[in-house]
Design goal:
The structure holds 2 protein chains of 2 kinds.
Chain A lengths: L1 H13 L5 H13 L1 H21 L6 H14 L1 H51 L6 E2 L3 H7 L18 E11 L2 E10 L2 E9 L2 H8 L4 E4 L2 E8 L2 E7 L3 H12 L2
Antiparallel strand pairs in A: 1-2, 2-3, 3-4, 4-7, 5-6, 6-7
Chain B lengths: L1 H22 L3 H5 L3 H12 L2 H18 L9 H14 L2 H10 L26 H10 L2 H12 L4 H8 L3 H22 L1 H8 L1
Helix pairs in contact in B: 3-4, 3-5, 4-5, 5-9, 7-10, 8-10, 9-10
Classes of the chains: A alpha+beta, B mainly alpha.
Chain lengths: 250, 198
C-alpha cells in the first residue's frame, strides 16, 4: 500500500515535478527501497533515451533562412509598437495646434479690444461735448458717476503733475458701462477708461506686456481691485506711462 | 490651462513609449530560437519533411499574424507550440491521426497501481532507433506529450498550456504514454524480454 503511493510518485519524481519536500522524501525512500529505486532508474533512463531519440529531425539551413526571411520581412509587430509613439505624436500636434489656435483667438480678441478703445477715444474727442461732467476737480468728477456705474473707483490727486483732469463721461465697451476720464497733457488729450474687469479681457491682455500700440496710439492697461484700466492717447509713450503710474498709485 | 494639459499628455506619451520599449520584444527574437524544436515536433507529428515544412511555415505565419494578441509576459513557447499543434490537428493528416484519439479513454486518471516487476522491465541497452520506431507507432497524443515532456523538457504546467488540458490529465497522459512506449519496446524486442526473464 505504502509502496503503491511511492510508485505513483515516480513519474513526477523523474520529471522533477514533485514539491521540494516530496522530492527529498522520495530521495530517502529510494535509498531504502530497491524496487522503487530500480523503477525510478528505469523511468529516468527511458526519459533520457526518449529525449535523445526525440530530437531526431532538423531542417535544412535553406528552409530555416527562408522562414527567418519571411518573418523579418513582414514583422507587423514593429508597426504595432510604432503605434503608440505615433499616437502620442498626433496628440502632441493636436495640443500644439489647439494652443496656437487659442493664442491666435486671444490675439484677435486683443486687437478687437484695442481697436474699440482707440475708436472710443477718437470718436469721443471728435464729439461736440467730449465730456458730460466738466471739472478739473476730482471731487466733482468722481461723485458724478455715482448711480451711473455699478462700481466705484479712486481718483488720485494729480495737481503738480503735467496732467490736468478735463472731465468725464459714461462709456460702453462690450455692453458694459464704464467711466471715461479725459486728461490733458500739453496739447494732447489722453483718455482713461475704467471698466469692471472681465476675465476674458484680462486673459487676452495679461499674457502680454501691459504697454500696447495701435495705429500710433499708445495704450497702457492694468487691473486693480476688480477694475480694468486703460490709458489711451496719441501722446508719447512716456506720458502715457507716467499718467498710468500716477493713477496706479493708491 | 493648455500648458498644463499638454505637459500632462506629453508626460503620459513618453511614459507609454518607455514602457513599450522595455516590454516589447520583436516576434523574430522570440520565435526564431524555437525554430529547431518546432521543426522537430512538426516532423514527428506529420511524419515527413515536406509536410513538416508546410506545418512550420503555416505556424510561423499564423503566429506572426496573431502576435498582437499574444500577452507579453506569458509563455511564448507554450503559445507557439499550441499554434503548431492546432494547425496540425486541423490538417488532413492531423484529423486522420486524431480519429483514433476519440476512441481513447481520456478521463482515465490512471496511476500505476501495480509496480512492474523488475523482470518485465527492459534492461538491455535501449536502442535509439528502437525508441524512435516505437514513438512513431504511438498514438499522436501520446507521442506529442512525450516529446514535449522529454525532448523539449517542458514542465507539466507548460504542457498543460500547450495542449490546453488540465494538469491532472497531463500527468495521467504522460504516465500512460510511457507505459505504451515501454510496451511497444518490449513488443519490438521479445528476445531481450525473454533473456531478462531467464
Amino acid at each position: 500500500m505504502a509502496s503503491d503511493l511511492w510508485t505513483q510518485k515516480i513519474p513526477a519524481y523523474v520529471d522533477n515535478e514533485l514539491p521540494e519536500e516530496e522530492m527529498r522524501a522520495m530521495d530517502s525512500h529510494l535509498r531504502e527501497c530497491a524496487a522503487c529505486a530500480t523503477e525510478a532508474l528505469q523511468q529516468l533512463r527511458l526519459k533520457q533515451e526518449t529525449k535523445l531519440a526525440g530530437r531526431r529531425y532538423s531542417s535544412s539551413a535553406e528552409f530555416r533562412s527562408r522562414i527567418a526571411q519571411q518573418i523579418s520581412a513582414k514583422e507587423p509587430a514593429r508597426w504595432r509598437w510604432l503605434w503608440t509613439p505615433a499616437l502620442a505624436a498626433a496628440l502632441v500636434v493636436l495640443l500644439a495646434a489647439g494652443f496656437l489656435l487659442d493664442r491666435s483667438f486671444e490675439h484677435a480678441r486683443q486687437r478687437q479690444l484695442l481697436t474699440e478703445l482707440t475708436d472710443l477715444h477718437v470718436a469721443n474727442l471728435a464729439a461736440s461735448n467730449p465730456v458730460d461732467v466738466v471739472s478739473s476737480d476730482r471731487h466733482t468728477v468722481k461723485p458724478w458717476f455715482q448711480g451711473k456705474l455699478p462700481f466705484s473707483f479712486n481718483l488720485p490727486e494729480l495737481t503738480g503733475s503735467t496732467f490736468n483732469l478735463v472731465g468725464g463721461r459714461l462709456t460702453y465697451l462690450d455692453h458694459e458701462p464704464g467711466a471715461l476720464l479725459i486728461y490733458d497733457a500739453g496739447a494732447h488729450h489722453i483718455s482713461v477708461f475704467i471698466f469692471r474687469d472681465e476675465p476674458e479681457v484680462s486673459r487676452s491682455l495679461s499674457a502680454r506686456q501691459s504697454k500696447l500700440e495701435m495705429l500710433n496710439f499708445h495704450i497702457d492697461s492694468w487691473n486693480a481691485d476688480g477694475l480694468r484700466y486703460f490709458v489711451v492717447g496719441d501722446a508719447n509713450e512716456q506720458s502715457i506711462e507716467e499718467l498710468a503710474a500716477l493713477l496706479r498709485k493708491p | 490651462m493648455w500648458h498644463f494639459c499638454s505637459a500632462a499628455v506629453v508626460r503620459y506619451a513618453l511614459h507609454l513609449v518607455a514602457k513599450k520599449q522595455t516590454s516589447d520584444v520583436s516576434f523574430e527574437e522570440l520565435a526564431m530560437p524555437l525554430f529547431d524544436s518546432l521543426y522537430n515536433l512538426a516532423a514527428w507529428l506529420s511524419g515527413n519533411t515536406g509536410d513538416a515544412e508546410d506545418l512550420v511555415q503555416e505556424t510561423y505565419l499564423k503566429a506572426l499574424r496573431g502576435y498582437a494578441s499574444f500577452q507579453p509576459g506569458t509563455n511564448f513557447r507554450a503559445w507557439i507550440f499550441r499554434i503548431l499543434r492546432n494547425t496540425f490537428l486541423t490538417s488532413r493528416a492531423g484529423l486522420a491521426a486524431t480519429r483514433t484519439l476519440a476512441l481513447e479513454d481520456e478521463d482515465e486518471q490512471a496511476a500505476p497501481a501495480t509496480l512492474d516487476t523488475p523482470e518485465s522491465i527492459l534492461l538491455g541497452k535501449v536502442d535509439r532507433q528502437a525508441i524512435q520506431a516505437a514513438l512513431e507507432k504511438l498514438p499522436v497524443h501520446f507521442r506529442e506529450v512525450l516529446l514535449l515532456c522529454d525532448a523539449e523538457e517542458m514542465s507539466y504546467q507548460e504542457i498543460s498550456e500547450t495542449l490546453s488540458i488540465p494538469m491532472g490529465t497531463v500527468m495521467s497522459r504522460i504516465y500512460r504514454a510511457r507505459r505504451a512506449l515501454r510496451e511497444a519496446l518490449q513488443a519490438q524486442q521479445p528476445s531481450a524480454q525473454r533473456t531478462s526473464h531467464g
